Amino acid sequence: MPVINNIRKIRKEKGIKQLKMAEDLEVTRQTFTAIERNKYNPSLELALKIVKYFELPIDDVFMLEEDEKEKNFPMVSYVWWCRRFGWYDNRSNYQKG
User: Are 22 and 32 spatial neighbours (Cβ–Cβ below 8 Å)?
Assistant: First the structure.
């Protein structure tokens, strides 16, 4: 699963110039451009610095991109277990039966 980020969107909302942020975080503007375009994933250290810079939770800045199969897997697995143990009723979703 690829990591995607909202860095560009957040940076623009906060009115921060890309060059200024790159300098503050001690990386090149080119590196920062690649990160914003999801062409390059920052190191863990840089990712944590970015989160701290924005003063936001990490999942507001970075997330795993899931395809449809991966998005549905946890629910399918949960439904399977509920049915297996008689906790699933098709008429009223999840209930202990």
Answer: yes
**Rg, Å, the chain Cα set:** 20
CB 7 within 8 A of CB 50: yes
Q: Mean of the pLDDT values across residues 64-70?
A: 67
Rounded-to-integer distance, Cα 44 and Cα 86, Å: 43
3-state secondary structure string, 43-80?
Answer: CHHHHHHHHHHHCCCHHHHEEECCCHHHHHHHHHHHHH
Cβ neighbour number for residue 23 with a 10 Å cutoff: 13
| Rounded CA separation 97/88 (Å) | 7
Stated pTM of the model: 0.66
Rounded to whole angstroms, how far apart are CA atoms 52 and 49? Answer: 5
Rounded Cα distance between 30 and 34, Å, is 6
Mean pLDDT of the chain: 82
